[in-house]
Write a structure and sequence with these properties.
- This protein has nine helices and eleven strands.
- It is an alpha/beta fold.
- A seven-stranded parallel beta sheet has the order 3-4-5-8-9-10-11, with helices on one face. The chain has a two-stranded antiparallel sheet with strand order 1-2. Strands 6-7 form a two-stranded antiparallel ribbon.
- Helix 1 runs parallel beside helix 9, helix 3 crosses helix 4 and helix 7 packs across helix 8.
- The longest helix has 15 residues.
- The relative contact order is 0.14.
- The model has no long low-confidence stretch (mean pLDDT 94).
Length: 280
């Protein structure tokens, strides 16, 4: 028997909601769709290989959404991985609709969120979603109504924990009076730190912070001080700038739960290798 820890475990762990312990380097499945996050992947078998390899590397937190495809991403995860191994946490999101390619519209009405959640349950082939996230606030719907519906779904046993995405601190403070929120998913990377105050909020309350677009700076080297810092880290540790971006996020805060996404097994392996890099 191989007792060597899986590479993703080198990032340490975080406990979502007090009872879901996951390795602190997850996988964002969004890219396992067609161009523009629309339609079927060009290589369905390749997409399944990426998902299987993620688990082999110790990833036990996968993030998706009903709007990725739409619906394609969740279905693909179930086709590839169901029945799910013990300890695998699949988080999904609802609250955006896709009228067409590259179109994203907020839809936070209680009726839509209920329909979205129940659709995700069927596609993922689960009776309860471990982490269900409101994809974004809808200005046309009171936050109390959107999150209140998720709280009802939680009471009905369809959701284990509730998370939010694209939220400000003020919105999080409102949300705290409606439901127990265990995670926040906002855009964040070394060159876009507008959610620093949200991270501080999460740290104070032991909530996970899940950065989306975590590798942006790794794709645009030498454009600003953040990118130059990534180049320094990459050179110091003999790794790519994308790996440096992940290592920087992991070092940034103990509540950080990065979910870098890719449709390539080789890039996945490179990303997960960053879990074991300690930086100052």
């Amino acid at each position: 028997m191989n007792d060597t820890p899986a590479p993703a475990a080198a990032a340490g762990t975080f406990t979502l909601g007090g009872d879901l312990r996951v390795n602190r380097l997850g996988y964002g499945a969004m890219r396992l769709t067609g161009p523009g996050i629309w339609g079927e992947p060009k290589d369905p078998q390749g997409a399944r290989r990426v998902l299987h390899r993620a688990l082999e590397l110790g990833v036990n937190f996968i993030d998706t959404a009903d709007s990725y495809g739409p619906e394609v991403n969740e279905r693909l995860i179930a086709e590839a991985l169901h029945p799910y191994p013990p300890g695998l946490v699949i988080a999904t999101k609802g609250g955006l609709i896709r009228p067409g390619r590259d179109q994203w519209e907020r839809r936070g009405s209680p009726a839509h969120l209920r329909q979205a959640c129940e659709g995700s349950l069927k596609r993922l082939r689960v009776e309860r979603i471990d982490l269900y996230q409101l994809h974004a606030p809808d200005a046309r719907v009171r936050l109390e109504d959107s999150l209140g519906e998720l709280a009802k779904l939680q009471q009905e046993g369809k959701i284990r924990h509730i998370g939010v995405s694209n939220f400000s601190v003020a919105e999080l403070e409102r949300a705290a009076g409606i439901a127990r929120i265990v995670s926040v998913q906002n855009r964040y990377n070394i060159t876009d730190r507008r959610s620093d105050d949200v991270i501080a909020y999460c740290e104070n309350r032991k909530m996970a912070f899940i950065p989306w677009y975590p590798l942006a700076a790794g794709e645009h080297a030498a454009r600003d001080s953040g990118s130059r810092e990534l180049e320094r880290i990459a050179k110091q540790h003999s790794m790519t700038t994308a790996q440096a971006a992940i290592a920087w996020l992991l070092a940034r805060s103990p509540v950080m739960l990065p979910i870098p996404g890719t449709s390539s097994v080789a890039h996945l392996e490179e990303n997960i290798a960053a879990a074991g890099v300690g930086i100052q």
